[in-house]
Write a structure and sequence with these properties.
The protein is elongated and about 95 Å long. By secondary structure, it is mostly helical. The protein contains 32 helices and no strands. The longest helix is centred in the middle third of the chain and has 18 residues. It is 69% helix and 0% strand.
Length: 480
């Protein structure tokens, strides 16, 4: 089963990147402001400007006698555009966007940069009319992606990303203008800030509702996937911020199911499997590096790729020994339990997909004595409990030899505990596991009866969704 959802995480500026990612994971737009400028302008309040003042700034920027005067006018305008009221006035003013685009195409670098910053403020607006007013600038923003200034390219990418997320009209315009080839060329940049910004813009494009039909086929037909996988390869060059962006990009492509077989042939499973091992090693070495932000999309990508028919030969595709994958996954589960328990279902979903059709992964789970650590997770939440029980069902389904190794240990007392839960799904999965154990493990039913199992079942006799299974188990336990 595919797991979707999730979103990239928003930085406010380069220095605040990690902090912002921890505090807010599901914001779409990003505001890139130069930290040196922010410090220089500290204490300056963003003013609300009327039409006359905006007109004056634009005229000064166009016709001022000195470059410093022209640049200063745009700086004042940019500060004003941080206010929604000024944004609305600006787009209503005839010729304002045309003037700003003209300044964006100026041959004076500082004017061009300030004009781009003004557009960036507009792109960050929550008002779609403001964003769509920026449409005349998109072709220029794309053109400048092939420029030489990494700072300017980064700014253009974040602006494009903000415009993309807000408006289908913008996306409709960008596709024929060649955004996919432009991004494919840009991904070869040596600058990490550019790559991270590119990952953001691409992730916004891939999340569009029309992406599976109109965008993802073009992306898969480009060199982007191969470069993305290269940027996710473990090693000294792996950058966390860049890897997070492109792992999410890969996740959106995989969830679309447009052509996951192609990704597998390009080595996606192998790259992600190695990255999983690398992450497990990293969380053991590092205290607080935001690694959970990368773990989430990597786990989702692997889980979803494993559902593909082309991925049936899991061990071969990963080119890893089963035990290494399972051991790494449990290291990550323990890490997530401490750092971000809400992400535990991601790791357990991968464990479910690994064990569902693979006796060898089930064997690894048993031989590494990981059943007890798995049972400890039952107290975390109902969602986690259902997934833990589902994994145990995967193991039990493999037959008598597997059930013999599961039983009795701490499993019986854990099942009696989960039968006391009020959540119907948790109880239903517990009943499923008991049914398998009764079927394959002689003595399991008798041991269950001796531990007051019938009383535990009686609690659920009146629950409509559980009645049939409860009755079947009662009959099996009493009569064999």
């Amino acid at each position: 089963m595919l797991r979707g959802g999730g979103a990239t995480v928003p930085p406010a500026g380069a220095g605040a990147l990690r902090k912002a990612r921890r505090e807010q994971q599901l914001v779409s737009k990003r505001l890139l402001r130069d930290e040196a400028l922010e410090e220089a302008e500290e204490g300056c309040v963003a003013m609300i400007f009327g039409e006359a003042e905006i007109q004056q700034f634009l005229q000064l920027a166009q016709r001022g006698t000195e470059e410093k005067e022209r640049e200063g006018a745009l700086v004042s305008l940019r500060r004003g555009l941080q206010r929604p009221e000024t944004q609305q006035t600006f787009i209503r003013l005839e010729g304002s966007i045309r003037t700003l685009v003209g300044l964006l195409t100026s041959n004076q670098a500082l004017l061009q940069l300030e004009a781009a910053r003004c557009l960036h403020e507009l792109s960050h607006s929550e008002q779609s009319a403001v964003v769509e007013a920026c449409l005349p600038a998109t072709s220029y923003l794309l053109t400048y992606l092939s420029g030489h200034s990494s700072d300017f390219i980064e700014l253009c990418l974040y602006t494009l990303g903000n415009l993309i997320v807000e408006s289908e009209a913008v996306r409709r315009q960008l596709l024929p203008q060649g955004i996919v080839p432009a991004l494919a060329a840009c991904i070869q940049s040596p600058h990490l800030t550019v790559l991270e910004a590119l990952g953001y813009a691409l992730s916004q494009l891939l999340q569009a509702k029309e992406a599976p039909e109109k965008i993802i086929p073009s992306v898969l037909g480009s060199t982007l996937p191969q470069h993305m996988l290269q940027l996710l390869q473990p090693g000294p060059k792996l950058n966390l911020g860049v890897a997070v962006e492109f792992a999410w990009c890969l996740h959106y492509i995989i969830c679309s199911q447009v052509n996951n077989a192609l990704l597998i042939t390009q080595g996606a499973l192998s790259t992600l499997g190695l990255l999983l091992l690398d992450l497990a090693g990293a969380v053991q070495r590092t205290e607080d590096a935001g690694l959970e932000l990368l773990a989430c999309p990597v786990l989702r990508c692997l889980s979803n790729l494993l559902t593909e028919a082309a991925a049936e030969s899991v061990g071969g595709q990963l080119q890893l020994r089963d035990e290494r994958v399972v051991a790494a996954l449990f290291i990550l589960l323990q890490f997530l339990l401490q750092k971000q328990p809400s992400l535990l279902p991601e790791g357990l979903w991968l464990l479910n997909n690994l064990t569902a059709n693979s006796p060898s992964f089930c064997t690894s789970l048993l031989s590494l004595d990981l059943i007890e650590p798995l049972l400890h997770l039952l107290s975390v939440s109902n969602v986690v409990s259902v997934l833990v029980l589902t994994v145990l069902c995967n193991v039990a389904e493999k037959g008598p030899a597997y059930c013999q190794r599961l039983w009795p240990g701490p499993l019986l007392s854990s099942l009696l505990d989960t039968l006391a839960f009020s959540d119907t799904e948790v109880v239903g999965q517990s009943l499923e596991l008991l049914q398998l154990l009764f079927l394959y493990q002689p003595g399991a039913a008798q041991a269950f009866l001796q531990q007051s199992g019938l009383q535990a079942l009686q609690r659920h006799e009146e629950v409509a969704q559980l009645q049939d299974r409860v009755h079947a188990l009662q009959q099996t336990a009493l009569h064999g």
